[in-house]
Amino acid sequence: MATGEPYFRHSLKVNDYLCQGCTTCMRSCPTEAIRIRNGKAIISDNKCVDCGECMQVCPHKAIYIKQDDFGRLFNYRYRVCLVPTTFIGQFEEKYNTKAIYSCIQKLGFTHIYEVEHEMSRMIQLYNMYMDDHPEITTFISPYCPAVTRLIQVRFPSLVDNVIHVRAPLELASRVITKRLMDEGASRPSIGVFYVTPCAAKIAAVKYPVSGKETYVSGVINMDFLYNKVLLMLHDSDKNAQPINHALTSRDVLWSLSGGEAPHFKGAHYAVDGLKNVLDFLEKLEDDAVDAPGLVEMRMCDQGCVGGVLSINNRFVARKRLEYRARLFERLERSKLREPVPDDKTLTQEMIDVMTIPEIKPRSIFKLNDNFAEAFRMAERMKKIEKALPGVNCSACGAPSCAALAEDIVRGDAGIDTCIFINRHSRASEDAIRSIWGDRVKTKEINKDNKENNGNDSQGNH
Amino acid sequence: MHYTFNIERGNFTDAGQASSSVKRTLKQLGVDPANIKRTVVALFEAEINAVAHAYGGTIDVDIDGEKIVMVVADQGPGIPNLDLAMQEGWSTASAKVREMGYGAGMGLPNIKKNSDELKIDTEVGVGTTVTMTVYLT
To answer: Would you give the distance in Å from CA A281 to the centre of its chain?
Structure first.
């Protein structure tokens, strides 16, 4: 790790003790960032976008998200819990918001702040970027950090379509820090802890695309906080309030798929789920989809309620947030709730904190910086791909035959790791042939036959 | 590097395989994203033209150290008036094709805009061969 770099680039880690090397994660990774080595999954730092798909599919719970030590909380005099509305969605209806917040307070937080409170300022920031770039037809919301990273590594031509604005939690943490400082607190005495529904948001805080300073002091995994709160809920005194003014019905729905784009002028699209996101970006890159306006993308199905650290079923969680939004809407309409007196002005300082000068493309496909060398490698890769069986069995430790071909030309694997090419005995030969037929090359069989001299024992591997 | 693909008449849903695979290779070579986009758009338009108008055909792609040459050759009705077809908005596409969201008359003009060299050989009743070249560096 280079000096000055944060202590990790990614939040997803493999527990070697639990990992069985079963290849499930490797096959589901959208950037082919995982390989099996020594029987365990390893994640490549350069390719991983922290989408959490591997963790979601792992049958052995061997992939986990590294979180900050909860004890660090008490290093600060002012301890702010930055909560997304998704957290409320995790609980059954019978537990009301105040009860949940009072448990958070009892855990040691002095203040609670709801992230979505900053949405009206976020809308202004998005609009500024869109107005500044009339040459761009389709804008992509920067809300989901996994999407931004996916675009950097797989769709580098689309980096400028992403609105160059940081995540709302960065603005929320800055607003609350400033407010406490105005009330007399010193900056080092304020600790702001964000409750995350996914891996990508941790990575975005720890290793920001913007390269800018963060006001977030630490991150707490949503499932961890959920367990702690649920244990206490039955004897809660039900009176805690967040210090921000009431959220609007719009704010409550923001993190859900479809909760963001409708608030912008022009056409809007809500794309959620890994497969849909990949498909949409692929088409957008080819100019094969006509989508003028704002596209909001959430790597998780249904949006943040589908995050890998969510506990409740995503549809049930979504429903709870929708009920909450409807209640707020009724209160707003019947004037039972006063219009929010909050200051929603966007200061130049906020704009400076929130804008990202450049989102750098870092293509994972490029074989070499030198065109001639890349050309030679691509040619060789094409030949190797033809020689491989194309069944994508993953026995070589790569997710597909194409990925193995790439590993080979990059010098990360040898062709003999393919069990179709490097066969050992007549018995294994016959077994493979009975399953895969013609993909077994005759030339190889003859060679093997000579070496094995008719011996069909199975135990000589 | 050479690639060959087949074109099937009326199969819009499966079109785009050639451009996807070309795109992947160009990304591996580290070609500038703007050039990748031009290549992919030109190739996709030419493929769609053949799918919409011809009875079938082939796509041949050659990539060398400096350029990509894409030849889309079809057996089809040919283009009776090439000058007219090169005008934006001119289209002979059927209602079915328009329903699919194509046929706006931007095909050939778009190909011209996105390729560095464009050659069209066409004979009425025989077919059309579109040769597009994009310089990569």
So the answer is: 16
Q: What per-residue confidence (pLDDT) applies to B112?
A: 86
For the segment A225-254, what is each residue's pLDDT rounded down to a tens digit? Answer: 999 999 888 766 666 777 777 788 888 888
Please report which confidence band the pLDDT of residue A3 belongs to, taking 50, 70 and 90 as the band edges. very low
Least CA distance to A287: which residue of chain B? B41
The Cα A261–Cα A255 span in angstroms is 11
Confidence of residue A363 (pLDDT cuts 50, 70, 90): confident
Among B24, B29, B101, beta carbon nearest to A374: B29
Q: B63-85: b or e for each residue (b if 16 or more CB lie within 10 Å)? A: beeeebbbbbbbbbbbbeeeeeb
Q: Say yes or no for a CB contact (<8 Å) between A375 and B19.
A: no
Round to the nearest angstrom and report the end-to-end CA distance of chain B: 16
Would you state the structure tokens that stand for residue A394, as one six-digit string? Answer: 């993953």
For A231, the token pair is: 């244990």
CATH of B2-135, one of 3.30.565.10, 3.40.50.300, 3.90.1640.10, 3.30.420.480: 3.30.565.10
Residue spans in chain A of domains classed CATH 1.10.15.40: 371-452
- Say what the pTM is: 0.84
CA distance A163 to chain B (A): 19
CATH topology for A12-65?
A: Alpha-Beta Plaits (3.30.70)
pLDDT for the residue numbered A341 = 56
The answer to whether the beta carbons of residues A41 and A24 sit under 8 Å apart is no
Listed as ranges, residues in chain B with pLDDT below 50 are: none
pLDDT for the residue A441 = 58
Reported ipTM: the value is 0.78
Taking a C-beta distance cutoff of 8 angstroms, is the pair A84, A195 a contact? Answer: yes
The CATH topology of domain A371-452 is 3-methyladenine DNA Glycosylase II; Chain A, domain 3 (1.10.15)
Distance in angstroms (rounded) separating the CA atoms of residues B95 and B101? 10
- The segment(s) of chain A belonging to CATH 3.30.70.20 are 12-65
Positive or negative: CA dihedral A46, A52, A56, A62: positive
Q: Does A365 touch chain B (CB under 8 A)?
A: yes
Residues in chain B: 137
Q: Which residue has the tokens 């007399």?
A: A184
Question: Could you give the 3-state DSSP secondary structure of residue A305?
Answer: helix
Whats the size of chain A, residue-wise? 461
